[in-house]
From TrEMBL, chain A:
Domain of life: Bacteria
Start and end residues of each Thiolase C-terminal domain: 246-372
PANTHER family for the chain: ACETYL-COA C-ACETYLTRANSFERASE (PTHR42870), NON-SPECIFIC LIPID-TRANSFER PROTEIN-LIKE 2 (PTHR42870:SF1)
One annotated GO molecular function: acetyl-CoA C-acetyltransferase activity
Keyword Transcription regulation tagged: no
Gene3D superfamilies, per the entry: 3.40.47.10
EC number per UniProt: 2.3.1.9
Keyword Metal-binding (UniProt): no
Name assigned to this protein: Acetyl-CoA C-acetyltransferase
Species assigned in the record: Streptomyces canus
Amino acid sequence: MSKELVAVVGIGQTKHVAARRDVSIAGLVREAARRALDDAELTWADIDAVVIGKAPDFFEGVMMPELYLADALGAVGKPMLRVHTAGSVGGSTALVAANLVAARVHSTVLTLAFEKQSESNAMWGLSLPIPFQQPLLAGAGGFFAPHVRAYMRRTGAPDTVGSLVAYKDRRNALKNPYAHLHEHDITLEKVQASPMLWDPIRYSETCPSSDGACAMVLTDRAGAARAPRPPAWMLGGAMRSEPTLFAGKDAVSPQAGKDCAADVYRQAGIADPRRDIDAVEMYVPFSWYEPMWLENLGFADEGEGWKLTEAGVTELDGDLPVNMSGGVLSTNPIGASGMIRFAEAALQARGQAGEHQVEGARRVLGHAYGGGSQFFSMWLVGSEPPDA
Amino acid sequence: MMREIAVIAFAQSDTLRSTAEVSEVEMLMPVLHDVVAQTGLKTADIGFTCSGSCDYLAGRAFSFTLALDGVGAWPPISESHVEMDGAWALYEAWTKLLSGDADTALVYAYGKSSPGSLRDVLTRQLDPYYVAPLWPDSVALAALQAQALIDAGDTDEPELATIGARSRATDNPRAQLKGPVPQGDYLVRPLRTGDCPPIGDGAAAVVLAAGERARELCERPAWIRGIDHRIEAHSLGVRDLTDSPSTRLAAERAGAFERPVDTAELHAPFTSQEVVLRKALRLDDSTRVNPSGGALAANPMMAAGLARIGEAAARIHRGESDRALAHATSGPCLQQNLVAVLEGDPR
């Protein structure tokens, strides 16, 4: 069974900010979609289907918003699918769209993910009410902090590593015009002096709440041949899930993440990710997840991830740049954050990332996760199509 | 040449007005066990899993993440979720099998309407700036559509009553409303209680398999000959409520008009919507419509569409149908529609 090749020929995102009070939800998503179409030099009529994703509907208070957004995204008369896989949704949405092309169901698909977090309060939106969770497990930070602490205990990582990641990502964000946080006066000392929120996670080591949307145009070989700018080719993509709560779960390095990465590497023929992959956009909502995911994704041996971070390997000019765009730590419209990772990976592979471009990035990994570290979605994109 | 994919098993729960004593996961578990047992597969044998549900019904964010624990996702599984009726989860799984990434798929869907007031909850589906603040409820919107049909001369109240009575005259043991049910009083004119679906909690699941795998696991697979879905504009003001062009287009793309179907399972929660769908799908009296009772006998939100595909497939499995059409809908007044055409091997 031969699959059709999938190419990214259009990418668009909004300037992410704390509150886009000037646009409706429809206005927000249309802005990103319009930019993706412009990038691909296509019109609404060229799109065969729309695949949309976002995290909980409660964030905006709109149930199944794809119904209301059908007009804004030019979907009337077309198929429209709505994906929801918690924080990994932006990545999963892109993969569902890519599969429509790979399976030859459609030639050209618009995929988009968004969140307008200013419509609500994510901190409390993510605090499930009693009796569904224990009290005082406030927000995502409260859930993930114990896992970070477990990582530190397990690996002996010094407690300075988290602030290095935050300092790096916030500096990278200064080179990305779409990033939410542009902290021009950022210093390592400022990160380290920021208040402790959920020990060991400090204020400056957490992601912001953003309004934003991200869109991509995915197409087949014929569509790629017509594209005005270099496409990024999908070399592999996978999703994996495991239960939220069970005794055998390793919350520090979940098996689903390892399996997902292994599947992507198998598809793409990657033998040694550290050597064969040039850059990574990974889902790091709290700074310590960079060293944790470096291990989970196979870029470092167990217990060694923090050493790569500490040695500067993951800096923009390092040997394996991570989160060149500034990452989730600088921009977090939750439902869109995964797709931004996928899109930024594609931008790098196309050589279109501007000031935060990694020279010679040929194979770039986009990574997303969600729920209680239980949903994973990843893709590897390249500047060249996969070998036939 | 497209890969052949079939529905090989279907299971569903009873649909009940309230299931306060069980969680969503507890409601779902027996259905998952049932459908997988029918195939002899184990969870670890399933290539892809996809579900459909909606957080808003349970009233909490990420409600679906807990359901995954019930699937037994260990070792980790290839899995996805749509915040839509499970019929669209089946569509996603179908494309996954088409691309050759998996040979089998588990699709499930569930919804509990009992935690809230469903008519109020569904208003949150509407345009959040101009319409939702007015809280027009789902029955009122359906009544607008029904009145438009009556005004156009497409139906009348006695015909609607006949549809309601026929739907409830089902021997489906899983149905919530069955037997003679009075037409009832007006709920919102021109719709009476007998024209409206019962509000219920329930779950449904199917297993898909590709090619030879389907023949190994099922005596008479229900082959998916075509499946397509289309969405219309959201605003009721720009739609002709007496017609369903999205259903017609989806049916055409699914190949429904190539040959007549003997069975049609339609997701028409209101009697008046069956009138619209029959016209769009060009169904006449030669087609048996909704032998299961359809959504008028049991309408578990998010599972009712998947159950239509499952019911159609089960009739093919049992040899009661050779070519069946299944339909699912989403959104106010049939805004989004999916059509699948299923066939059994020639006998």
